[in-house]
Amino acid sequence: MIEPTRLDWVESLGGPLVLVPDSCLDRWTGALDEEDVPPEEVDDLGLAGDYSLACAVEDYLGNVPVGGGAGEALVLGDCPDTTAFLPSHGCLVRWRGADSERQILAHVDAALAGAVWLERVRWRTDGDAVLCDAATSGEETRRGAWPDGRPIASARVPLEAGEYEARTAEVSNAGRGPSFGLVVLERIGP
């Protein structure tokens, strides 16, 4: 069992979370107001910016370019679950239904051992990444606050530069324990 700890949980405003390489975080635009961009850059839902690209990912995981190709973000699609990075296991834990962090952590080892992987995606980073709400810009995420001063949560994810396989699994214990998602980040090459 993992010893309980205080993880940095990141919440979304309702859209996806993203893992953006720290080196290009400042180029992540987040959600842009429709009136601030040319009409051809607004999607069918009235969304613009990198947030629009992230929202277009319909699967559990996906990649989108950051800053005109300066890097790529890993999109955690499907549900806007509150998520934390668990460094001891090199994975993201996505809170679906649990009484406490301790309850989730007590089940991670067994969940990883018996995981049925639902989806796999390759993703590249040049080092550490930042887990944040896709709607926030990189500048807002670094500042840790919206322009009106409300706090913005994010979490640093220490990673080596290279190519990773991100794979996801769902854990549902049908009322006998917590429900959560896992996203394992396994480095597979330079």
Q: Mind explaining what this structure looks like?
A:
- The structure is a single chain.
- The chain is mainly beta and 190 residues long.
- Helices cover 13% and strands 34% of the residues.
- It has helices at residues 50-55, 101-113, 138-143; strands at residues 17-21, 61-66, 71-76, 82-86, 91-97, 119-125, 129-133, 155-157, 162-171, 179-189.
- The longest helix has 13 residues, at 101-113.
- The radius of gyration is 16 Å and the shape is globular.
- The mean pLDDT is 88.
Brief synopsis:
The chain has 3 helices and 10 strands; from the N terminus they run E-H-E-E-E-E-H-E-E-H-E-E-E. The chain is mostly beta strands.
Q: What are the salient characteristics of this protein?
A:
globular; 5-stranded antiparallel sheet
Please state the average pLDDT score: 88
User: How does the overall form come out from the CA principal axes?
Assistant: globular
Radius of gyration: 16 Å
The largest β sheet comes out as: 5 strands, antiparallel
Contiguous low-pLDDT stretches (5 residues minimum) are none
Helix content: 10-25%
Question: In oligomeric terms, what are we looking at?
Answer: single chain
Termini Cα gap? 32 Å
